[in-house]
Amino acid sequence: MKKTTMLKASRALLPSLLLIASPPISASEQGASVPTIHADKPQSAASEKDILETILITPQRQATKTRNSQINIGRIDTDTLARENIAHIQQVLNGIAGVNINRGSGQEYLSSIRSPILTGSGACGAILLLENNVPIRPASFCNVNGLIESHHEQAQLIEVQKGPGNGFYGSNAVHGAINVINPASINQNPELSLQAGEYGYGRLGLKTAGKNWATTTTIFHEDGYSDDSQADWQKFSLAYSGDTGESLQNTLLTAVNLNQNTAGYITGLNSYQDSVLARSNPNPEAYRNLRALRLSQQYQLGENATFGQLTPYARYSEMEFLLHFLPGKPLETNEHRSIGALWKNQWQSDLWGTLSFGFDADLADIELVQEQFAPTQGSAFLMATIPEGKQYDFQVTTVNSGAYVQMHKQLNSLWQLNAGVRAEYSRYDYDNRMNSGRVDEQGNTCGFGGCRYTRPEDAINTFTDLSANLGVIYDINKQQQWLFTVSKGFRPPQIAELYRLQGEQLVSDLDSERIQGIELTWRGDWQDHQFNLSGYHYQKQNVIFRDSEQYTRNGAKTDHSGIEISWLYRLTDSLQSQIEYNFAKHTYANNPVGLDTQIKGNIVDTAPRMFGRWRLDYEPFASHRLSLAISHMGHYYTDIENQHKYYGHVLYDAYYQYQLNDNWRIDLKALNLANKAYAERADYTAFTEERYFPGRDRRFFINLTYAL
């Protein structure tokens, strides 16, 4: 039976919200970290005359031209978001070279950026998720479905940083970062949109704007493709900017509520090809309820930001999630309350060029309970080792702080130098609120050697990490550049890896994961072509994994190499072709202690060698636009032994946009036109063997937009 009582409301967050939401003091548009994007001037690649002049936000937490950035950034602009009217973040992120999002049930997903699909309790810590450059969650408490908590559907821009970057971002920016920018902006055009589609899909969007404020609202419902997989979702963002001459730059408030019934994997070799099985739900009891609230403000300190820019923020989230994939199907409830601030400044000199420096601080109070409400079903071993009752109940107070300096210097008319370093300190104060050890809630010892779940004693864990980067940019001419970068990134362990132990492990002695590597890029324009061609190689150490004895360990190593192609070709004034494609190889580089299987040299599971998307856009008139997209997913192994494989798929999508007049626009969308049976995600376990999240069949959507 579903537990419907959500965790207590944001009782400890309200004082922080009131403090941060104090009356605005001032606002100058000069030096804006997240400038507004004019909604009536789409920032599409096709509209840019020079790709090197494209404005980026993520690399330096402020407006920066591509030609001055050492970071490879994939962009999803206003035009693309309006055209696609996304029902899931996968639909646009998978249109960026090097990004692979595996959709799960409903809005859930697993992600990768220049990596295999990242799984496990702490793997979500390898990609930093941001909203207007503010982390969506504390560094120690990531959510594998973290973009559910962002208001990306109607954002003005989404940027994806590929690979470890520069000193501006530390913890969790191992394989990259995703930054959702301006889900509400005072420069947006007021509009009302209504979208409808198959399987009971409906979405209402509303944008409003005043002189110095704006709101964005999204209300979503879907009956679900699988049985008992309906979802209801409400999102609201409020933006405010102070009057000219005030120090307040921008305020952003985002609130999210999700109530979703979750469908589980279907099992059996190629079961996704069976249309009846594909729509079945082996776990109709599964669900996820989530609420999130974030508030951030940007202040210019001193006249013309002499003393830099300060961005204080506060966050709150709570979630109930039935762990239907575990024996006994326990319920996890968690919540966090956190506050923090980002401070940055700049200094100019003839010797050092532009020095950007700053300090970040984040404090979080995190609570987690895992409880099973019925006896475990299955073998005698499972019933004996997983009794009902509480399995975890702990609180963790975390502190994360970092300082950085980043240099950009124009060496001469052809060469630029970028270099930086970041030092970061993390402290976790763990309080176990039930008995410790490998016993049940009452302190009884389980049969077959002991209980499955282990609770460590109270502890304090600290981590100190350094990241560094060095990059040179060479101007071939005004339209083309070579870029060479050496970088190093890290992520400290997640609290789920440190304190949700199993088996005989009483203490997890974990260190931070680390990655370092090189990248070479050729980017720019040539006649009617825009391109970004990149090659990279990364080595990753201290990879955290769970061994054959259910111990959480460090010690795995992986190698990651790839070539990315982003190429746009304007065939005529009305026809353009764009390809975003990836060739990659992700391998295990050692046989870590504690793992029985010999895996060195094997391809990492769920790591396709090739994938990407080709798109053809035809715009015969200013009011009509027709697009065809072809997505390719190459084959990949589904187990670490490389004995089982998913053979990939090709999908066809079509889009049509018609601007009826100044006020009305209609969008039509057809996904999976060929009605291909495919798997969004394929996996293999010794218990279930082949299992899949099936892809959805052919479906149609219509969207009406009215400019208010």
Condensed summary:
The protein has six helices and 38 strands.
Describe this structure as you would to a colleague.
The structure is a single chain. Strand 1 and strand 2 form a beta hairpin. This protein has one domain (42-707): Maltoporin, Chain A. The longest helix is centred in the first third of the chain and has 7 residues, at 14-20. The protein has 708 residues and is mainly β. The chain has a 22-stranded antiparallel β-barrel. Belongs to the TonB-dependent receptor family. Hemoglobin/haptoglobin binding protein subfamily.
Helix proportion range: under 10%
CATH architecture: Beta Barrel
Kindly name the structural category. mainly beta
Q: Give the beta-strand count.
A: 38
- From the spread of the alpha carbons, the general shape counts as globular
Mean pLDDT: 91
Which residues sit in consecutive blocks of at least 5 with pLDDT less than 50? 1-32, 36-48
CATH topology: Maltoporin, Chain A
Largest sheet: 22 strands, antiparallel, barrel
What is the number of helices? Answer: 6
Rg, please? 25 Å
Beta-strand content bin: over 45%
**CATH homologous superfamily caption:** TonB-dependent receptor, beta-barrel domain
Q: Note the gap between the termini.
A: 45 Å
Q: Compute the number of structural domains.
A: 1
Membrane topology: Multi-pass membrane protein
Domain TonB-dependent receptor plug: 67-177
Pfam families: Plug (PF07715), TonB_dep_Rec_b-barrel (PF00593)
Subcellular location: Cell outer membrane
